[in-house]
Structures are given as structure tokens and as C-alpha cells.
Amino acid sequence: MQFQRLKDKNYNIKIPKKSAFPIETPDDFIQLPMVTLANSKRGGAKTTSLTHLLRLMQYNNALERIILVSPTYENNKHYFEDLPLNESDVLEPEIDVIPQIENILDEEALEYEEYVEKTKRYKRLMDMLHKSEMSVYEIPADLLLEFADENDNIAPPQYKYKVTNRPPSVAIFFDDCLDSPVFRPKSGLGRFVISHRHKGKTKNMGSIGCSLLFATQAYTSNGAGLQRAIRSNLTHILLMKTKNQDELKQISSELGGELSPEEFYDVFNQAVKDRYDFLFIDLAKKESHPSMFRRNFNEFILPRSQNQPL
Domains in the chain, please, with CATH? Predict the structure, then answer.
């Protein structure tokens, strides 16, 4: 087959410079924001594994706030020790919880935008103060008063989070919610997952987005199960030991043809050698990563068909 390329370069596809993953992370870590599922039977360490992922986000300076949607927090508090979770951000998985989360994200977005705008005004003031030919009386009084403390010292604006050069990274964790009202179609959870990168709107700076984490005992189920809208938007999957061959087959088929079923089972069996091991599937892997598969978070698995050492 022969191709004839058009000479007009305007026909070439231009990739936007703005990334779909605006939060910078270390090269060996995952891209954010994310939609991550931990799937295992009861007692399979789903919550343990996902809270460890949250700690890795925190370790990599990529987590400022957690919103937990769960009916079992009182029994699971110990999982969240040392994580940025305020008990006022623990919500019940009711039918109206999604609008509550959206309001929280909008508040975070506007607060960050206000900080950015205030930083610009502070820079403008500093530029004026350091112009030797400019008298202090020529500086707008409201600008001076905005940054003057009670002792008339000029102080820069303060942001509530340590990281100031990017929007806050907020993670929403749905734990033990599979058969609860939030998983019913009328809750809006499916639409929320589809548009998670566009939540938390500002007036002039776009949206801050959010990361989503789900801990469930079933990949699919009847009634209030894991909706297709959620499964098709997953960026990462933690797959623990299971004897459910139908579930493994469905997950394999939804990987977009990355591996044959036989190769997938081989990779899965390499990953889950010990009791609490899991196969970590990175559907949004960085180009520098040798594989989209890992044993837990720290060991890449290269499918045998690729026939190359890591």
C-alpha cells in the first residue's frame, strides 16, 4: 500500500501543549489525576493498598486533601493516620453526595485562584516599591493596605497548602460503597467520573480536577454495581488474588487488546505470588516506564511476549 503525503502542513495534527495530567510527579510514579480501582474479595487488603497509594502521593508532594466517602470510617480510622483527611471530609455514600463533593472542589478552586491573583498583586506592589523613582505616595492605597500587617510591614500572601506552584491535588476515596445509594445511576457518580479532570472550576484558570479511588469486592455486579462509565475511565487497577476466572477474563478484554488472555493470566500469576500481592495495571503509564504492569507498586513486570529484560 502506498501513501501520498499532502505538502500543506496545516493538515498535520497538532498536539496541545497543555497535558491531561497537570500535576508533575517523579518519573517512577504514576500520572495524576487518576481513576483507580482496587478489586478483591473481602479481606483482600483493598483499603490498605489504596491508603498506601495515597501515602505515596503525599510522599511525592502530590496530595493536599482527601475526601472519604464511606459508611465504615469509624472502624477504619487507623488506615488514614498521618494522611490529610479531616473528619469533616468523611461523607456518607448517599444519593446526594456527588453535589457535596463538587461544591468542595469548587471552593478549593476559587480559593486557589484567589491566592494566584493575590500573588500577582503582591508582585505588582513589590515592583512599585523597588522602583527608586517612584514615591510611596504614588502607590494605590488599597494595594498597600492589602498586604500591610498591623505593624505596617508588607507581607506576601499565604496559601493554606505547602505547594503553591500548582492547584491543590484532591483525592476522593469511595470505600465500601458498592451497594450504597451513591452507586445508583441517579446519583451522578458515572458522569462525575467521566468529567473528574474538569471538576473544581475557576473563573479564569480552568479546573483543578481530582483523583478518584474505588475499593470494591466486585468488578461488575447486578443492581448498584461498578458502572461501565467508571470501568471505561479507569487509569489504574489493583487486582488482588481471585479465583473468579470470568472477572479476570472481562478485565483482560477491557485492557484494549494490550495482551492476549493467556499473556494476561501469566502476568497476573507473576504478580500475586504472596497473600496480599496485587497486579497493578497502569493504563496511563508514562513513556519512560518499561511496562504497564507491576507487582504491587514497586516491581515492573514485563510480559514474556515482549522478550526483553527490564
Answer: 20-109+170-301 (3.40.50.300)
